[in-house]
Write a structure and sequence with these properties.
By secondary structure, the protein is mainly α. The chain has a domain at 28-84: Ribosomal protein S20 (Methane Monooxygenase Hydroxylase, Chain G, domain 1, Up-down Bundle). Helices cover 86% and strands 0% of the residues. It contains three helices and no strands. The chain has helices at residues 5-41, 44-64, 69-84. Helix 1 (5-41) packs antiparallel against helix 2 (44-64) and helix 2 packs antiparallel against helix 3. It is elongated, with a radius of gyration of 17 Å.
């Protein structure tokens, strides 16, 4: 553990941010999985609804700094392509 006061604070804030980012990424993976399972099941309505939510979650992750904007755009594009193929 660090001895310097600012570094002790930095360790605590990094741990809190890591936990928050981990939760956000987990939620993203859940919504992406919901889109994929709906597409695999052939359920177009459920896939479209899940895609809307997943896209919003991806955009939110970008604004919070969890994901890079290009990575989110790529994920949204791939998901939309799969949903539109139904």
């Amino acid at each position: 553990m660090a001895n310097i006061k600012s570094q002790i604070k930095r360790v605590k804030t990094n741990a809190a941010r890591t936990e928050r980012n981990r939760a956000a990424k987990s939620e993203l993976r859940t919504w992406i999985r919901k889109v994929r399972t709906a597409v695999d099941a052939g359920d177009a309505e459920a896939a479209k609804a899940a895609l809307v939510t997943a896209s919003a979650k991806l955009d939110k992750a970008v604004t919070k700094g969890v994901l890079h904007a290009n990575q989110a755009a790529n994920k949204k594009s791939r998901l939309a392509k799969r949903v539109n193929a139904l």
